[in-house]
């Protein structure tokens, strides 16, 4: 007797999660928000909703960087953003660069260079 797997719920529009997660960061729970950003974006990636996952990761990276969570949170989400670009086979164009650069203004130069090196290593594999 085989059991059918229960259907997963339909994912809401990404903006709903962006707003909820931003509130968690603003309330001071950066670590908790980080875990939620990672798990929520993973659900969108699994559903092959790469653009929505990118929106969530971009928002998360930007707000974490804004709240000076550079090394621990913002940079990690920025790397996940780039990995999602690769998984989703997004073209290398001005729109894609614009999305990434929107958060880079919150990096200090040393942290930005470290992230750039990590991204370059990721994209070469």
From TrEMBL:
Superkingdom as given in the UniProt entry: Eukaryota
One cellular component term from this protein's GO annotations in UniProt: cytosol
GO biological process, one term: protein insertion into ER membrane
A Pfam family annotated for this UniProt entry: GET4
UniProt xrefs under Gene3D superfamilies: Tetratricopeptide repeat domain
InterPro entries in UniProt: GET4, TPR-like_helical_dom_sf
Family label: Belongs to the GET4 family.
PANTHER family in the record: GOLGI TO ER TRAFFIC PROTEIN 4 HOMOLOG
Protein's name in the database: Uncharacterized protein
Species in which this protein is naturally found: Actinidia rufa
Lineage: Eukaryota, Viridiplantae, Streptophyta, Embryophyta, Tracheophyta
């Amino acid at each position: 007797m085989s059991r059918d797997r229960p259907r997963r719920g339909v994912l809401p529009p990404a903006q709903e999660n962006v707003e909820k997660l931003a509130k968690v960061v603003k309330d001071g729970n950066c670590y908790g928000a980080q875990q939620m950003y990672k798990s929520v974006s993973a659900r969108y990636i699994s559903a092959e909703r790469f653009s929505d996952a990118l929106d969530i990761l971009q928002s998360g990276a930007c707000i974490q960087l804004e709240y000076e969570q550079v090394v621990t949170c913002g940079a990690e989400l920025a790397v996940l953003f780039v990995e999602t670009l690769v998984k989703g086979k997004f073209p290398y164009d001005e729109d894609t660069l614009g999305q990434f650069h929107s958060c880079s203004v919150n990096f200090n130069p040393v942290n930005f260079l470290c992230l750039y090196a990590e991204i370059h290593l990721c994209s070469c594999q």
